[in-house]
């Protein structure tokens, strides 16, 4: 096993990876920007290297600085975490060229799944249904108009290189297609340096269901059940749960089989997630994330599997430490994403934490790098804590969620805790009766 791993990330996810390494006897190297000199991931790591100024492009996306840090500290491998360079095929290649192990899939798989047009094509080749839409990238508005007539309105225009909900626009009718097409392409070019877009039918009330996969590239492929991530604002997930309250056992068996079969055919190695939209008992593949995901802890809570540990094992050439028959899905888990933002206006709220007390007790897990006195910098993602609850059933889990939210003290900044408290009291949520558009309407009700 590796002796020393460099963690090319920050915040709670860097800490999460550090913890797995520590429990495996692996030493860790933290990298950080000047804004993160006092961050918890830096404090807990065995060694740390400052890799640049606050803006991410100069630090957490600064490939030469990260590779130099790995060389100086004598790391064996680099874990990219979530976001930043985690799905960057060029980075994965450079890591290998410099003699380090990239803890993630091959650069070929990163490239194939990083472009949603080629990813959808691959899914179709594996026999997975996709959302009806264009077969590939759409060259111009004339072609878009022709295709849209065949697909049917409303139409969703999506960026081939998309992520985080950017480069996505809905055209309700043909009248708005030209503008939506131009805006999506411009946004895609600005955000991803790739203006290619494709078309999909815009589904009216889908749920977002995704399957967590682990594969070792030696024939071992397992799933850890599905996650329901339908509670989203601006296509960003806010609360996730497993199992999905919408699926029956047959549907669960079907979607997890679709996912594991595809990953086995792909010869994939690493952790991955296949994302589907689910409507009227049908599943449609939308994309595959070739990395750890923010919401991975809920799958860990119901299976007892440490996903990061398995990532480290398979990256080192070891087989998965379990087979499908060893995995028992037990109870229910919910993750509340706690962001440093106002729970009504969603205005970012960086600043100093004046008091901090995390909840505890049976079935409560907190993944966070916050501490009293810490200053949440304004430069990065607003996620500051993940409150993860486990219960024997969904009702117990929701009661535990209410209790833990009540205990959680974070002062000095605004957080989304009050939003989660409103959600936990909302009949539709309690009944599991929601789709991907539901949360937008719910938060609009609280707007002044
Ligand atoms: P990104 O990579 O930017 O997150 P995804 O393709 O994963 O984009 O989609 C993000 C979210 O956008 C989905 O979870 C869903 O809520 C919504 N979405 C995507 N495709 C469709 C569609 N065809 N119809 C309706 N909603 C969609």
In short:
The chain is α+β, with helices and mostly antiparallel strands.
Can you walk through the features of this model?
- The protein folds into three domains: 4-86, Rossmann fold (3-Layer(aba) Sandwich); 132-201, ATP-grasp fold, A domain (Dna Ligase, domain 1, 2-Layer Sandwich), CATH 3.30.1490; 207-444, 2-Layer Sandwich (D-amino Acid Aminotransferase, Chain A, domain 1), CATH 3.30.470.
- The radius of gyration is 21 Å and the shape is globular.
- It has an eight-stranded antiparallel beta sheet, with helices on both faces.
- The protein is 34% helix and 27% strand.
- Helix 1 (11-23) links the parallel strand 1 and strand 2.
- The longest helix has 18 residues, at 249-266.
- The chain is of the alpha+beta class and 448 residues long.
- It binds adenosine-5'-diphosphate.
- Adenosine-5'-diphosphate binds at residues 131, 156, 162-165, 200-203, 206, 208, 232, 235, 275, 277, 286-287, 436.
Unique bound compounds: adenosine-5'-diphosphate
Give the structural class: alpha+beta
Helicity, as a percent range: 25-40%
Mean pLDDT: 97
Oligomer: single chain
Indicate the low-confidence ranges by residue numbers. Answer: none
The CATH superfamily of the largest domain turns out to be ATP-grasp fold, B domain
